[in-house]
Design goal:
By secondary structure, the chain is an alpha/beta fold. It has a single domain (about 5-189), classed as 2-Layer Sandwich (archaeoglobus fulgidus dsm 4304 fold). It is built from 7 helices and 7 strands; from the N terminus they run βββαβααβααββαα. It has helices at about 50-65, 80, 85-95, 110-115, 120-130, 155-165, 170-189, and strands spanning about 5-15, 25-30, 35-45, 70-75, 95-100, 135-140, 145-150. Strands 3-2-1-4-5-7-6 form a 7-stranded mixed β-sheet, with helices on both faces. Strand 6 and strand 7 form a beta hairpin. The longest helix is centred in the C-terminal third of the chain and has 18 residues, at about 170-189. The relative contact order is 0.20. The model has no long low-confidence stretch (mean pLDDT about 95).
């Protein structure tokens, strides 16, 4: 892969308490495959809400970077099950979306069902159940990744992740997570 290819990594941070507002910090980091960080963008979404997809789309438009080839998400349910609609996201930004997690699990459907009452439960479960199937990508960096992707063939998504992963996390989401934590700390004083 050419060293100048870019991905936008998106991750969130929420380290608030019960008496604070219920906003979570999202960060996007444009990172080249050679690990150069090109740009950052920030957004917020509601903890326990349903606005994460819209927040990411808004951040994408504010970023205004046509040279970004892929969006790489750190998970699909930031901010306490604010489930990202990856198909809608891919359509809105006209780029493939690759979501990664780092642990094997049985999924979030049961947890979402336990955490929310109708109608909030149904809306989140519908978005969650419509996500692309999760698959295991063996030994990328320091271990396996669990991947959902849309707008891209699975083998191409694997190549993208392999190119951007030098340790445990793909570099775009690693940088985005650090930026989100720093912004969250700054915002909360």
């Amino acid at each position: 892969m050419k060293p100048g290819r870019r991905a936008l990594g998106v991750a969130e941070s929420y380290r608030g308490t019960d008496d604070e507002e219920t906003r979570s910090t999202l960060a996007g980091a444009v990172v080249r495959v050679d690990r150069t960080v090109d740009d950052l963008v920030f957004a917020e979404c509601t903890v326990g809400g349903t606005d994460a997809t819209d927040a990411i789309v808004d951040a994408w438009h504010r970023l205004d970077r046509e040279d970004v080839s892929w969006l790489v998400l750190s998970g699909v349910a930031p901010a306490w099950y604010n489930v990202v609609d990856v198909d809608r996201l891919a359509g809105a930004v006209d780029r493939p979306v690759i979501a990664v997690t780092y642990e094997d699990s049985d999924g979030l459907a049961d947890v979402i069902a336990d955490a929310f009452d109708p109608p909030a439960r149904g809306e989140r479960l519908a978005t969650y159940e419509a996500l692309p199937e999760r698959r295991r990508l063996e030994e990328v960096g320091d271990g396996p990744l669990f991947v959902r992707s849309t707008g891209i063939e699975p083998d191409e998504a694997d190549r993208v992740l392999e190119a951007f992963t030098h340790e445990r996390r793909p570099e775009p989401v690693r940088v985005a997570k650090r930026a989100a934590r720093a912004a969250d700390d700054f915002r909360r004083g």
